[in-house]
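From the methods appendix. Each design record in this collection lists the tokenized structure first, followed by the designed amino acid sequence. Records were kept in a plain field format so they could be parsed without special tools. The example shown here is representative of the layout used throughout.

RECORD:
FOLD TOKENS (415 positions):
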């Protein structure tokens, strides 16, 4: 009993599982690659159009194909070999990065924009298919007793990778220009190599031979909407990111408002991850298992405040600070939602439930980017960001009233 207790309190326990270490290696490589792509494509598109709406369209052309396949991807993730699904999607992402490189140097500027959008759309398909399988594999890398610890470490490492990718992208672009797309290709190949070493996990699916795809998808949707805690948590994130998606407008802030160029854009992009990393390091040792629901609501409220301050700031260092603080608040939300996902969802439904979750969470960044672009076009950049932050605060207050079970959530009761 003493040894079991020691394992549960060991802050490094998740890292002692080889599959989890390989999994986070994949996430590090892919996160850096995708951040390189997001920053460089955003800069590339804005350099062609100088139109904030064009930045919002990046999110739209990615999320439409993502939406179209996510629910089906969840069904397949619970029925078929998840490793083969992931390898296939990584291969598609590899060809996308090669396509971006080719477009940058071999296509005229007048046609580049359409090809960039097209490649991002294909990338959206691949990311929509890969997400449910990746999540299902993550939950199989450690025993259930260590889900909070693995979620904290996963968030910490992801934020470090995000920060490195976003922070270095501007400098890398200044040094090698659009050859960054080739670097992305090498990172994807490295991720495929690391993923190869994760041992396959057999998953038993109840009634897999008799249940139809439609019924399978309905089960996932029903599970999500029948849980006030689950629905409240993911709805919070959806609307917070939807209305607080100022990150999509960072190229405008870097170029026109703060006037710090692509290097400054990289720092702005990395700032939320810096704050999230620092908070994640704290959460590893002091996880939010007491008064969890209240901490989640306060964290999202703090995120909204940060967006308002960022929107009106004209000081680069203040902007960096509030973006970092927003990342710290967001990390608390990530850890709580991740723990809810891993703890409450049955093993035979993880893929389909995560697919429904992705409609809320995975798509919120892209939809938020589009919303931010449209709002900035109609209202102006600064008013649109302030409006989004204010709406986030109202969503938190509404959720606190309508989802009392979420407010009462306390993981300490299950520890």
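DESIGN:
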């Amino acid at each position: 009993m003493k040894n079991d207790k020691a394992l549960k309190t060991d802050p490094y326990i998740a890292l002692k599982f080889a599959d989890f270490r390989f999994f986070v290696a994949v996430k590090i490589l892919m996160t850096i690659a995708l951040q390189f792509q997001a920053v460089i494509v955003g800069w590339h598109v804005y350099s062609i159009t100088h139109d904030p709406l064009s930045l919002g369209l990046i999110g739209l052309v990615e999320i439409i194909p993502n939406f179209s396949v996510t629910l089906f991807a969840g069904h397949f993730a619970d029925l078929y070999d998840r490793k083969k699904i992931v390898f296939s999607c990584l291969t598609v992402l590899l060809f996308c990065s090669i396509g971006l490189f080719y477009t940058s140097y071999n296509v005229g500027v007048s046609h580049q924009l359409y090809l960039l959008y097209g490649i991002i759309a294909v990338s959206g398909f691949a990311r929509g298919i890969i997400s449910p399988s990746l999540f299902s594999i993550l939950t199989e890398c450690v025993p259930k007793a260590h889900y909070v610890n693995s979620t904290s470490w996963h968030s910490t490492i992801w934020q470090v990778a995000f920060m490195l990718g976003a922070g270095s992208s501007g400098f890398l672009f200044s040094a090698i220009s659009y050859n960054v797309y080739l670097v992305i290709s090498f990172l994807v190949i490295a991720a495929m190599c690391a993923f190869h070493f994760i041992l396959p996990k057999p998953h038993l699916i109840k009634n897999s031979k008799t249940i139809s795809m439609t019924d399978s998808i309905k089960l996932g949707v029903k599970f999500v909407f029948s849980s006030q805690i689950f629905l409240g948590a993911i709805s919070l994130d959806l609307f917070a990111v939807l209305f607080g998606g100022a990150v999509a407008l960072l190229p405008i802030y870097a170029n026109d408002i703060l006037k710090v160029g692509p290097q400054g854009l990289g720092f702005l992009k990395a700032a939320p991850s810096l704050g999230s990393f620092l908070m994640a390091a704290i959460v590893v040792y002091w996880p939010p298992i007491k008064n969890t629901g209240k901490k989640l609501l306060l964290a999202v409220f703090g995120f909204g405040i940060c967006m308002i301050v960022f929107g009106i700031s004209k000081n680069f260092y203040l902007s960096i600070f509030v973006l970092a603080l927003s990342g710290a608040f967001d990390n608390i939300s990530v850890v709580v939602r991740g723990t809810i996902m891993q703890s409450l969802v049955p093993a035979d439904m993880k893929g389909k439930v995560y697919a429904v979750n992705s409609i809320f969470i995975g798509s919120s960044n892209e939809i938020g980017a589009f919303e931010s672009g449209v709002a900035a076009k109609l209202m102006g950049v600064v008013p649109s960001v302030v409006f989004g932050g204010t709406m986030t605060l109202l969503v938190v207050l509404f959720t606190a009233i309508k989802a009392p079970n979420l407010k009462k959530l306390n993981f300490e009761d299950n520890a």
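APPENDIX NOTE: Residues 1-7, 204-209 have pLDDT under 50 and may be disordered.
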